[in-house]
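User: Assemble these into one structure.

Assistant: Restating your components, then the assembled model:
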Amino acid sequence: MKRRLILRDALTFLSLTLITAILFAVTLFLFHTFATHRQELAQRWAARGQAAIASGHPDQAIVALRTALSHAPGERSYELLLAQALGDAGHTEEAYNYFLGLWETQPGDGFINLSLARLAAKKNDMQSAINYYRAAIYGTWEGDGIVRRRDLRLELSRYLIAHHDLSSARTELLVAGGNAPEDTGLALTLAHLLEQASAPRDALNFYEKVLAREPNNQQALEAAGRLEYGFGHFEEAHRLLERAKHEHDTSALNQAWSPDLQTMLDAAKQILSIEPSKKLPATDRVNRILRARDLARKRFDDCTARVSAANAASSPLQNLAARWPSKEATINRAALLNDTSEQDAVMKLVYDTETQTSQICGAPTGDDALLLMLAKSPKPVEP
Amino acid sequence: MDKHSAPSGTESKTRAAEDMIARIAPAREERIFLLLAIFIGVISGLLVVSFRMAIEWLSVLLLGSSPQPHQPRLIVIPALAGLIIALLTRFVFPNVRGSGINQTKAALYIHNGYISFRTVIGKFLLSALAIGSGHSLGPEDPSLQIGAGVASLISRRFGMSKEKLRIFAPIGAAAGLAAAFNAPISAILFVIEEVIGQWSAAVLGSIVLAAVSSVVVARSFWGAEPMFRIPAVTLRDSRELLAYAALGVAGGFAALLFAKSLSYLRPKLRSQPEWSQMLQPALAGLLVGGIGYFGLTQVMGAGYQAIDQAMHSQFAWRMLLVLALFKIVATTLSFSSGTPGGMFAPTLFIGAMLGAAVGSFEKIYFPHLTGSIGSYALVGMGVLFAAFLRAPLTSVFMVLEVSGNYSIVLPVILANTIAYVISRVTQPIPIFEELTHQDGLYLPSMEELREESNLRLEDALQPVTVPVLQGSETIADTIQSFAQYEDSRTASVVLIHCSNGLWYAARREELETLFSHSTAASSGQSPDATSTDQSTRTIEQALGSERTPILFPDLPLSSALPHFQRWPLLPITNRAMRGSLEGVVSLQDVLNRYQQQRGHSH
């Protein structure tokens, strides 16, 4: 009896095993069919979503991609597209949270970090934006990592410049420039951004690199000329701007020459015509010094008269007034020709006069203005 | 020979076989019990996978792959499906109404764990049709009943005893729910909290095995990803817990609204004439479809996709509140109409919307707080689960399991507790109990069962007022000692302290008999003892080796009951000091204590 009972149990278990196996096989078959159909539906809707994104209809893309995801839950590419569509449609918060969810599973993904950075920037969350930009730079990218990282550094620098963090922007640009290939377009971009990041000397370096490769690059000539002019290197500025103008005139492009550049070019030319450069013959140099002294004297007298009329008790030009009767103000041509140190002393008096009168009596005009520019240039009195 | 007076050969063989089966049955059942639990888990898992597939197939077939507002079929399909469901429920599957939880409990407590195969098939088909066609119901509770039905069927096939048949239903229920939720711990806890009502070592192992087996099967098809993914929650500012507490309060009142709506509408609809009840699922389908048609397609069906969207902050807070409100309306209509389907998914939906609404509100007005909207939605799900379904322990583990995220545990515990307390205060009878009462059934209240205070001996303990004698004294000395007690003439019981710290509770008559025998022996009237023996014999020797049982104050009060047939009074001793008396209890003391408790509970 006991044996029969055991046999009965064994048979029941056997039949149960068979039933389970058959049920498993049937479920597996149905599931396979079901999964295939769902995959087809998901792909169809995802394709619609992608097409909608491409055609600039992010709202339609959101619906399509949500449907795609309902048929293929957790499909990463669809999730990324949906997050992108949400961002494109202006649902910044939703897109941000969506990307954040994706970031949880792949915190080192370059694209997700970049998207989060852009969305954080949109939300005016500067610190998060910078953090995500940096994470994106050091994150993983498929295939084109080097180019992506460089582009990201440029994007981050633009963001930093826009938020007045110029020092960090300059650092990012110099790192990007350090690893950059010899590419004119890239060098021009870097130089332009460095200018915006208040790093004109670094910018000038990049323009010079461009000019070394392409001496007739008009954009580089103009920018470099402008920068040299700003540094007070009027001779170099004049040379570059002249070349730029020449390139412009010979260019097939029918663009107007910038009036600002023309003003700079004219001013540089004028400055060069009155500057008592040491490269000039001694007679010419002394002539220019004496002319400059006359101009400065006149400017001083005019300014003194205006200040005295306004404030009779005490004049802010007292120091200058004490220097004008001195030797350098009265020394004659012959004496100057033989004494270069006196030449420098006279020019120093001229520059000091132009500088101080501009502070008290306002900006000068004409040649006085040119003298003032020379006074402000890095080496107004050449050694 | 009279055939009634002497068994025939066949009868005696049958009886012998039955005797043998009866003899070996317990060991046999124990052996196959765990193995069957695994089979139940696997088959339940396969059926639940098929059930979910059926729902999604039907949903795509009936409502299209991307249901959008203003599609006429959103109204037509749920109404037609409602009509078919009503006809099939009336004529083919009469026991498939409701969610499945109360039906499983009824099977367990009323029908000895019996669930018919027809009910399982009916539940599978009609619930899939209802949910797939857009009725606002969920697949988890039907999965629970399908699992319990599978268990019932298999255990019957094996000819298990009645006692074991009853145990199998919760095992299958756990397997079904675990596969549906992809969450074995929550399923086990829910079955313990809501179906069995108490922890029982006898079934725990089998429940765990069945639940794990079913989840393994389900994951082999659907994958092991948690149902919902949210970023880790970092509580940088503990003030954020206030927001979660506010969510707990909101959830408590939302659960009240949901429960009240069901408590009001369901009996109203059930009291309508028979022909009208046949139309109710169709009408409910029409109204739920109408909600979808006019813009809120999210409330149709189980709504998991909308929950995911809410977690990823794709709705504004006002929209979230509207969705929560209309989900309450839609689920009340669908469920009250008698359409088969579960309450879990709608509860989670409402909770998620409410939580996401609180989270979105916080993001706008308190942007410095760090919690993500997903975390609020997740906590909201737990909150409604605790407050509406009244399963506080399951609610906490459910949130942790469906998200796979432990970092959220603190807000979940806080919010769930608040919601649960509010729900208990505002709605003393849990919704499942209310629904069984509406059906005319009185199943055990799991909440009461959980919280029933177990009386202990210390609750009936009385000070020692009876005479206490030393067992080491001779009988003659004992007579003298006893005589010194003021109440020696009236005391009906005497306690005798024996060696080894044991006690003997002697009745007065017993003692008097002992004393008279001793006196007779010492005066030479008794033939069976010498006078010298009697003078040196101690009373504990005279009482023999039997002693009152050793009882301690922390033992259950019921543990004293079996001993009152033999002993008139039971000494209660200290666990730390052997033989040291804490007090005594009599049968009357025990009965009085039980009656007091009953008086309090009423």
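The CA atoms of residues 87 and 361 of chain A lie 56 Å apart.
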